[in-house]
Known about the structure:
This protein is α+β, with helices and mostly antiparallel strands. The protein has helices spanning about 1-25, 25-65, 85-95, 105-110, 140-150, 210-215, 235-250, 260-280, 305-315, 340-350, 380-395, 410-415, and strands at about 70-75, 115-125, 125-135, 155, 175-180, 220-230, 320-335, 360-365, 405-410. Strands 1, 2, 3, 4, 5, 6, 7, 8 and 9 form a nine-stranded antiparallel β-sheet that branches.
Amino acid sequence: MFEYFSKFLNWLQGGVDVFLNLAGNDPFSAMWFLFLHGGWIAVAWALGWGALYYWQFNRQGKFGAKREWILLRVAVPKVSEQTPKAVENMMAYFAGAHQSNSWTDTWIRGVSQAPISLEIASLGGQVSYFIYSERKMRDLVEAAIYAQYPDAEIQEVEDYAKKVPSHYPDEEWDAWGVEMINVIADSYPLKTYHDLVDPISGEFKDNLAAMLEGFSRLSADEQAWYQIVITPTDQKAAKARAEKLINKLKGIKEEHKESILELLVDIPLNIGKTFIHVLLGTAEEAPHKEEKKDLFPKLFALSPMEKEVLEGVERKAQRINFQTKIRFMYIAKKTVMQKSRVANPFVGSIKQTNNMFSSQSLKPETNVVGNSGALWFFKDLRNNIRKHHLITAYRARSNWAGWPSYTLSTEELATLWHFPILMQVKAPQLSRTEAKKNEAPANIPFG
Length: 447
C-alpha cells in the first residue's frame, strides 16, 4: 500500500514540475496542460451556467412580451391630512403581488416577478402622480390606494414617457438622466419620515417639497420624470443579509459553513491524512474544544451612535423590503433646457434621506449609467448612448436594466415617494401646536 501511495505522490509532483517548467518557458502550453488535467471541468461548469441563464433570460423575454401593462394617474383629495404612513401601508399591500413560481414556471415558461413603478412627472409644469403595473394587478393597486385614500381619483392614461424622443442627438430635444444608487450595503437604513419630524414643533418636514416646487416651475417645453421601480420578493435574501449584519454589529461570530468547492478540496486531504495516520500507526488528535465565551462581548461596549445604527438595521429588517431601482429624467427643448434648475432640487430632496449615523446614502450614478460631464473620451457619443438606454429603461419600467437593484423597506419607500402633505404631522409624544398649512404647488392634481 505504501508503494502505491508513494507512486501517487511521485505522479503528483511530476505533474507540478511539468506545469512549472511549461509556465516558465511557454505560458500557452502551460495553460493547455492545466486545461487537459482538470481545468476543463471549471470551463465546462462556467459555460453550462452561462447557457442555462441565457436560456432563462430568453424565456423571460418571451413571457414578458405577452404581459399587458397599465398606467394609472392618481389624484388625492386636497383636504387630505394623511401622512407618509398611509403610503407605507399601501406599499405593504403591494407586497401581496409576490408570487412563488415552480421550477417549470421559472425555467420553462420564463415566468418572472412583475414590478410596480411609482412615478411623479411634471409635464410642462403640470405635476401628476402615476402607478404603472400589470393590468391584472389593477384591482390590487386600486384597493391599496382606496384603503388609505377613500376619495382618491384613479384614471387610466396614456404613457407620457413615449411622447418624447428616445434617440440622441435630436434636432429639437435634449435629455439628462441618472439612476440613484446606494452607497453601502442595502441592509443599512436611510432616514425615513419618522426622522424628518421636527423635535420641537412636531411638524413633518416634507423632503419632497422642494422637488415638487421645482417640478411645478417647468415651462411647457420641459418635462421631469421621477421613477421608483419596486419588485416584491420572498424576503429571504434581504433577511439573511440583515441577520448577518446584525450579528456583526453585535459582535457575534458566525459559524463558517463550508462551500461545495471547499468540501471537494477537503475530502482528498482528509482521506490522505487518515491514510498516513493508519500507515504510521499514529492516532489522530481529538478536535480541540473551544471554551465558551461571552456571546455578546461587543454589544455592551457599543457607543450611542453604534446602538442607533444597530436599531436602524433591525428596524429595517422587521419591515417588508422590495428590490428597488430609482431613475430620474429631465427632457426639454434645447432652447429652454436648464439642467441645474431641475436636477439640483431633485438630488437635494433625495439627499435629505441620507443617514449620517449608518452612512447609508443615495447618490447619482454617473460612472456607468447616468449622464456625466466628467467623461474624457467620446463624451457626447457616450452620453447620448446613455440617454437612450435610460429613457428606454424608464419606458419599460425595467427592474434589471442599468445599475444593480438594492432593497428598500416600505418605510423608506414611503419617504421617497408620497402624496403632498398639506397638514403638518404632529408627533404624538409632543404637545400639539396650532396646525399649520404646508401648501404644495397649486398645479398638482387633486380629486
